[in-house]
Amino acid sequence: MRSSASKIQRALAGSSRCLTSRPPPSLASPNYRLLSVGAQRCLSTEGIPKELWSFPSTEVTTLSNGIRVATSRTPDETATVGLWVDSGSRNETWEANGTAHFLEHMVFKGTAGRSRLQLEQEIENIGAHLNAYTSREHTVYYGKVFKDDLGQMMGILGDIIQHSKLDTWAMEEERHTILREMKEVESSHEEVVFDRLHQTVFRESSLGFTILGPEKNIRSINQPMVKDYISRHYTGERMVVVAVGNVDHKKVVEFAEENFKAIKRGSGNPVAAESRAKFVGGMAVEGSEEAGQMAHLAVGWEGVPWTSPDSVAFMLFQSIIGQYRRGESVIPDKFSGNRAVHALAHNKGGGGAEHFTAFNTCYRDTGLYGFYVQAEESAVEEVVSDLIAANVSCAYSVTEEDVFRGKLGLQMQVFGALDGTTALAEDIGRQLLVYGRRMHPVEFLRRLEAIDADEVKRVAWKCLHDRDVGVIGIGAVSQLPEYEKIRRKTCWMRE
């Protein structure tokens, strides 16, 4: 798979035709949602590197209990297999916030048929790696294994998901581990800023919950709470089994049927029953001795859901604004084509931003777009103003050159992220959960090339110009303006 992704990157780097050929009319329409499978019929080969058409295809089979099994065959000697679950911290109540993450830890502590030591030894004996993570909307368990040991790894995954013992003593042991993890998270200013941003703008919904949960919850989560979470959310229609590597689809389906047969269908569609997140503008600031003379800041607008017809435009916004780190991104006294980078690199105050990055996060029914920046205390107001202006100006003055440069960067980012079986499995699992299908890379390119400067302006005017924002400041934030002044900066005509 590494060679496939690398070939695609080289082909894209050597060809600009992908960005200039005229898109099919149906894909150019702003109403063409990413849920649609009809896009496959609108794809043409014009201007598309042949390497993209040979990108590994994805086969999908749905089991009787609702679990979808997806495979993508590559020539690798190793394979990645995992379980993607459409449930995370967003699916919790306030009293139970942190349960999804607690469960992720507990599944490795032993099952009815394998002790913790036996699990560890079995994984080590086949040279495999097993890992997991929890996000706001998803939980993922995956393993990297030699292709001949795929069936054994699927047996391990099925066992820990369906038959974990959840012993009380193991929960007490893991409780301390999670509390230490919380301390590590709290020591990262960037992670704290993003948690505070979610808590501020989504404060009326569970999307504002942290993934680990508050300390009082970590100390009180118990076995009945974890079992209740499993019964409610670990159901067949919420799950996708993905295998990528030199794998046979029919064999993987057989392994899945055998090893996940205890998983039951849920009643109806509980995902659809989750409360819709409402974006609310606001501001939160707090001091931090550890931050010294640096301010850690984020400004966020409401973004768009995964399936929005504007989601690719938001990906392009992120690429156009880009990122910057002092001393790395541009040569001193040289001009950067990125207006935001240029403004910060040549800050008139002589200080300015140490680092900034644009971010774009999609969720089931909303999104979060904006920028995170580290700046010296004296430069905070100017840096925030420059970055808001750089984003809002996409509604007025973005050029075709800006769009072209952003598209090149986005292409390299997207296809570079598909390097290896684990990255490809992650992409397949996520797409099946959020789109209900696997999007071919050519379709993504066609959707991207359908966006020109006028389309960027349209979406930016609708979503960024004169809109409420969330503002978070941690550390040396004495120079951060009040919310009303920051809010006015989102309108080009206001002071």
TrEMBL record:
Swiss-Prot/TrEMBL cofactor(s): Zn(2+)
Molecular-function annotations in GO: metal ion binding; metalloendopeptidase activity
Position of the signal peptide: none
UniProt-listed InterPro entries: Metalloenz_LuxS/M16 (IPR011249), MPP/UQCRC_Complex (IPR050361), Pept_M16_N (IPR011765), Pept_M16_Zn_BS (IPR001431), Peptidase_M16_C (IPR007863)
Span of domain Peptidase M16 C-terminal: 221-405
Annotated Gene Ontology cellular component terms: mitochondrion
Location within or outside the cell: Mitochondrion
PROSITE patterns found in the cross-reference section: INSULINASE
Family, as annotated: Belongs to the peptidase M16 family.
Protein name: Mitochondrial-processing peptidase subunit beta
Phylogenetic classification of the source organism: Eukaryota, Sar, Alveolata, Colpodellida, Chromeraceae
